[in-house]
Each structure stands twice: as C-alpha cells, then as structure tokens.
Amino acid sequence: QSTADDKLAEGVVMTMKQLADTFTKLGIETIGEKGEKFNPGLHNAVMHGEDETMGENEISDVFQRGYRKGDRIIRHAMVKQVN
Predict the structure, then answer these.
(1) With a threshold of 0.85, does the pTM exceed it?
(2) pLDDT digit string (tens) for 15-47?
(3) Is 30 helix (H, G, I), strand (E, B) or coil?
(4) Buried b / exposed e along 32-55 (16+ C-beta atoms within 10 A)
(5) Distance between CA atoms of 69 and 50, rounded to whole angstroms?
(6) How many beta carbons lie within 10 A of that of residue 29, not counting itself?
(7) CB-based contacts of 52: which residues, under 8 Å, 6+ apart?
C-alpha cells in the first residue's frame, strides 16, 4: 500500500527484508507463485476462474504466500486457480 511518508515506507521495506533473510537462514521457503501448477498439498484454492493465457490447473493469482520447511507445510498458499 502506498504512503506519502517515505521514512515509513523505507522502514517497512527494511523489516520485510530482515524477515525474508531470517526465513532463509532458518531454511523456510515460500510457496505459491503465479504460473505454478496447482497442488492441493501446497495450495488452498479460494477462487476459480478462467484465463486464456494460462494453462489448466495453473495459479493465476496469489492472495497469501505459503511457507514450508523441508517437507513440512507451515502455511498453505491462498491462491486463485484457473479451470
């Protein structure tokens, strides 16, 4: 979300970078990217739709990224799936 306060925006970006770095150090990876094949073991489809530019069972939108550590799912990704 945009803001007129540059210092606030800079602080949020720095915090998000630190969080991403910490996740990397802990071996936690993000799941759920646009264009990936839908996998019910990794993704939670909260919407379905049609998109001629994408293949069947692909993810067209990611509403909330998921996380996993090794084989363990910490949080499923919340996505929109193309029929």
Answers:
(1) no
(2) 999 999 999 999 999 999 999 999 999 999 999
(3) strand
(4) beeebebeeebbebeeeeeeeeee
(5) 32
(6) 13
(7) none
